[in-house]
Amino acid sequence: MKTRESCLICQIVGNKVPSYKVYEDDLILAVVDVNGANPGHCFVIPKNHYPIIEQVPDQELANLFSVANKISSAIFENLKVQGTNIFVANGIPAGQTVAHFMVNVIPRKENDGVNLQWKTKQLTEEEMSTVELKLKEQIQNVGVGKIENVEKPKTILENAEIQPTQSISDDDEEDYISKQMKRIP
Ligand SMILES: [Zn+2]
After folding, report:
1. Ligand 1 mean position to 172 CA, how many Å?
2. Residue 141: per-residue pLDDT
3. In a domain, 121, yes or no
4. Separation of 178 CA from ligand 1 center, angstroms?
5. The domain spanning residue 159 has which CATH number?
């Protein structure tokens, strides 16, 4: 496990700082943020110390977002909210305050005062094509493909609140899906 002693998140991972854990497996931990934007704000972290998203291996990244998705569902089911933001601050100008990558899952209600909105910027056609050109080729060459042998993370923390979203019987499936569809904007 890659850890850094001076890192607060690594101290949470190593149980040197107490935390409210809602999920844990071999490589991932999710805790309730004591200084969250709203009650139930959780962050999902790799146990390895990676400061930014670019350093997180694809497999761990896939699992981190999978856990974030399940926590988001648990928040919907149990905290009576109307939405969630699944949010990453990557780099200091983007608002990252701790040098350990994390995925925030923020419960949202209408008019809750949490502001993640931005003013749109109108680009000229030339600016748009320049940006497109600069990004397109490099993105096409990074070789994003299927992740082989995606393993489901093993839960070692029993958490009843997360379980219902992971085990849906066939009978409930239709109801569940129609319920989830209502959440799609
Ligand atoms: Zn760390």
Report:
1. 40
2. 75
3. no
4. 40
5. 3.30.428.10
- Count how many domains the chain has: 1
**Residue 15 covered by a domain:** yes
E strand segments, the chain: 20-24, 28-32, 42-46, 83-87, 103-108
Number of H helices, E strands in the chain: 5, 5
pLDDT tens by residue, 6-29: 999 999 999 999 999 999 999 999
Cα-to-centroid distance, 4 and ligand 1 (Å): 5
Domain that holds residue 94: 8-115+152-181
Convert the pLDDT of each residue in 84-113 to its tens digit.
999 999 999 999 999 999 999 999 999 999
User: Count of CB atoms within 10 A of residue 154's CB?
Assistant: 9
